Structure formats: C-alpha cells, structure tokens
Amino acid sequence: MKMRLLRVYMDHTAGMPVDDRVLESMMPYFTQNYGNPSSTHSLGNEARRAIDEARAKVAELIGAEKKEEVIFTSGGTESNNLAIKGAAYRKKEKGNHIITSSIEHMSVMNTCKYLNKQGFKVTYLPVDKYGIVDIEALKKKITAKTALVSIMYANGEIGTLEPIKEIGEVAHSKGAIFHVDAVAAAGQVQVNVQDENIDLLSLSSNDMYGPRGLGALYKKTGTPILPIMQGGGQERGLRSGTENLPGIVGMGKAAELAKTEMKTEAERVSNLRDAFIKGVLDNIAESHLNGHPTERLPNNINVRFSYIEGESLILSLDMEGVACSSGSACTSKTLEPSHVLLAIGLAHEDAHGSLLFTLGKQNAKEDVKYVLGLLPRIVRRLRAISPLTPKELVT
Amino acid sequence: MYTEKVMEHFRNPRNMGEMSDADGVGTVGNPVCGDLMTIYIRVRDDRIADVKFKTFGCGAAIATSSMITELAKGKTLEEALKITRGDVAESLGGLPPVKMHCSNLAADGLHAAIEDYLKKREAKR
Question: Which of A20, A80, A161, A234 has the highest local Cβ count within 10 Å?
Fold first, then answer.
C-alpha cells in the first residue's frame, strides 16, 4: 500500500523516533569501537568504559544509589519477565503469591498468567474508574506469603499515574519485593527508586527516544532475583549474552537527555495535552476522557466517542496524515477490546470507540489545531453511518 | 493492511442510509463485538429494486456493507441469496485474514433482510 503523507505523528507510545543526538552517540560503536566488553585488550576496555558510562546515566535518571544496580536487557518486555520470574522463583520459599493490577502491560499480565500455570497464585487488584489501583484491596490481599507486588508507574494507554510510594510501603510491610513497570513513565515524569520504595524497575530505551531492542532493569542492592537466561554471565550473572554495545550507549545518551530536558518538555507537552482534551470535549458531543484528568502522563490523550468504532476513526485520521492508536478490538491481535478500558469499567461498545493520541517532542500547537480541526467532521461522518447514533446527533 | 478497493468503499460508501418504508430489514452482529450492521431492501417483482445500509464497526465492516449493496442491487431474490461472504471479500480484492470472520457480515445481513421480506410476504397471504 502507498505511504500516505504523514503530517502529524501522535503515536509515541507505539514507537518513538530516535533522537539525532542519540543516533550520533551510537555511530562510533558500530564500526570503530566494536570491542567486546569481556575482552582484556584495549578495545574491550573501551567498550566496558562506554557501558559503565551509559549505566551511570540510566542510574542517574531514576535516582539509583549505584550504577551497578542497572542491568541492560533487550527491552521493557524482557525487563518485566526478568523482574517477575526472577523474583518469584528466587523467593519461592517465602511464598508463591504474586499481586499485580488488572491494567498492567501484556508483558506483566502474561508473565503472571504463565507463573500461575507454574503453580503461583496471582491476585489482580481492581482499579477505580480513572485506573488508580485500589490500595485498600492491596492491604486486604497481601499476606506473609506474598513474594512479589508488581504495579506499573503509569499506564501507557490511559496515562494514569499510580501512587507508587504508598504501594511500595504496603508491599514492604509484608516483606514482599516491589517491582514497578516504568516503561511508559520514565523520561516523561520524575521517577525516584529510592524515595518511592522501589526494588525492581523496568525501563525501555525507545520510550525515551533511544533505539529499540534495548531496555534496563533496576535492581536495588540486596534484592534477590534469579536470572532467566543462562550463558556467559554478563550483567553480573543476571543477563547473559554479549552486550548490545551501540544500543546501550544510545540508551545511556537517551537517559542523559531525558534527565536534562524532561521537566521543560513535560510542561510544554502537558499544555498541548490539556488544550487537545478541552478541544475535543468542548466541540464534540458525547465525547469522554479516559483516565484521570490530572494524575496523568504529560503526553497522554485518551478519548472516546459514543456510537462509533476506533479502527474506522484511525483510518479516517490516517487518510488526513494523522497517526494514532485505539483500544478497540478491531485493532488488536486478539479481537478483544483493551483490558485496561474494560478494567476501568467501560462497556465493550464504549471501549471500541476510544482513541489514543500520545504526544512527543516533534508535536507543536499547530498539530493539535490540525487534529482538532479534523475530528468533529470525522466523528460526524462515522456517526451518520452508524445505526447506533441517536437521530438528534446526526442532524 | 486494506486493499485500495476497501479503502475506496470506506471513503465513499455506496447506498448508505436508512429506508423508512423498506420491504425487508436485516440486522446482524453485535456492538459488544465491535460490528453491527443493518441492511434495508425494497423488492419489486422479486428483484432487489433498492438497498441501503447502516453500520457500526471497523473499516472492513463499512466497506463490506457498501460492497454488498452494489452486489445485490438489481438481482433477483434467488440470486441475492446466493451471494456469499467470500464473494464480498473477493469483490473488495480480499480482506485481512483476521477480518474474514468478525467484520465480513454483510452477506449475512443481506440474507437476513431477504428472509425478513419473505416472512412478511408469507404473513400477508
């Protein structure tokens, strides 16, 4: 199919461009400094030095005490697998109970489902209509047999920020390890592992303008986990496999840029977000915001339109050069609407009509204006086609 | 993902709308699943003289609805009942495999409208 003219990219949660400065920092490590950090010679030393530097930058971004607490992985999914399986297997003698939420990323959900088949008991905590995890339910469900509590820092789909520090306190009160999936949050909002009672934290490089295929797991000193990959014992025995040197350097640079630019960028983008949300709710009847109005990622806009379906909205926007996502079943591999939207209490037919716009560095005021100019017309057209639309909305 | 033909029907759906005095109406699908389709027919001398549709659903659901109205118009009821889901997909240059079952409901909708007409005719006799 022909590539349509792309005018506005608002699908940053699905994929981000690599920052030019990140790409530049990576280039020497493909063709000049290609040593293996496990080698004894100078080229090996240079690779080791570069990795250490990147490790320190990632540690700094999340407020880790030591750089050695950062383990590089192949991405958010591997980090979540390593954290959850690694902690569950290692803490088996304490108990076989895991607590997570009902709105986690599939790499947490399906890892927990897998462990359930292996004999672990899993509790999925409910969330309120905004997607905030029910702490009272956590207090009721947690026991001395709970080995691990895994809750996301922010939900990438509806943008809701979770009360991480409080959840960590509850987890620690029963001696459970606290894992946090911060893939959607890191680089968007300030994360501090020491202040927020976090033992394990998953990160992804591409979600902060770094290269794909790279991620990290923060492991607080003294937190026991087992490796899930056996091999040459790289990353202090926790992640075997020759290091992805250019990728790690790139992720380090991305973390460094996020650290220095995050605050200004978050402020800029959250202004665009609020103008976008207001523009939709004010100008389109029966449109609604999904997620929390204020406790929300600065780049996240998730709205739904009654009586129409998300995929046809995406196609209509794509025809005008706008890229975004939906939680509709029609855009998923499983043909089920987003579990996150169902968990916040939406009916299936409402979940189908949701649209997700995630903003990034490249988006400006004009982009928001452009999309807000298109949406009312697109929604009106699809509502005219839909048999569910009440008459008064069409005329 | 979709063929140019699917996108063309999505952009410019044929025969979209309601028919207040339809001779037969068929509704298939379910908004819970993400697809709901209503087909209206007007019958003259055992032929489909006019046909309209309204659809809630994805691009494929809208394009197949539009396509079925083109395929059905002017056909005898007997001919129209022989139009299959496969015929609709083929006329659109194919559909993604995942859409073949859930969104390719238009033939069922047309058949339901014809059955509705036949039932009403039977009742009048």
Answer: A80
